Please model this.
Amino acid sequence: MKNIFLVGILLVMVSCKKKFQAAPENKSNELATAEMPTAKETLNFVTSAELRETVFYLASDELRGRSTGSAGIEKAAVYIEDKFKSYHVAPYFETYRDHYKAQGMEASNVVGYIEGNDPELKKEFIILGAHYDHIGIVKAVDGDSIANGANDDASGVAAVLAMARYFATKKNNKRSILFTLYSGEEIGLLGSKHLAERLKEENINLYTMINFEMIGVPMVDKDYEAYFTGFDLSNMATKMNGYVDFKLLGELPKAKEFQLFYRSDNYSFFKVFNKPAHAISTFDFTNFDHYHKVGDEAELLNYEFMADLVNKLLPAFETMSNTTTQEIKLNE
Model:
């Protein structure tokens, strides 16, 4: 997550932004029962083992903290590509790579694609994303100088890859889905900014964008599983809760206080497309003490919790991909 404590510039941005108010909810469209996932179908699809494998590799010392432009982040990109290939997830562009320049360095996003199975709805896109870079080598603490970035944001990458495996297996999404992993987040949301602008130039019909940011540990004393940044800017969280029929996503006051909506890759898509684009996170400012530190290690994450969260999210995303109209909208 791009530095959440540097908020001065963002407060100026917020003072200038349009005020949003909640809009009336529309009744959900009826979907064919056969097309709808059930808790029984999805509850155990994603395993803690697969999430653990991804995080332990991406956050290993071998990758040296995955700073953009480094040899370590290139290894991470190859790992992501290999996962897409093994799941039979197609590249959206000619290859999986979306190349760009990041502060003079060669950089790339990695983009997978599962086409929708409806002749018309497949022209609409849902984007599921996370950033695979971190801050690299930092000042040593007790001889350790590698900021491994397990929670930030190998956890989010693991979730996106697991969801790509799910949709590639089920093949029951009417809308098309892009699985997007970004570099350059820690140095200014550069990768997501580049990809959003490129997709806008290609005139894709973006429906929603959901970003996964620091989901490796459960929140403390909350009555929901994860929080939505920019909760009140659209009806997405409310709709997703309705799709699963329980309070899966909530609003964290601290997220609004620190303007986290503007601090991660969802904001790039919101800014470029003006469509619902949010981040899902479980970092609640009390449950993880290693943000941007060398202590952000893979063994500290709760992989059973992560698997449970992703399995609970999957029915909501599958419903989102199959509604006959675009139910999710920005609030006016």
The chain has a mean pLDDT of 90. The chain has ten helices and eleven strands. Residues 150-170 form the longest helix (21 residues). Residues 23-320 form a domain with the Aminopeptidase fold (CATH 3.40.630.10).
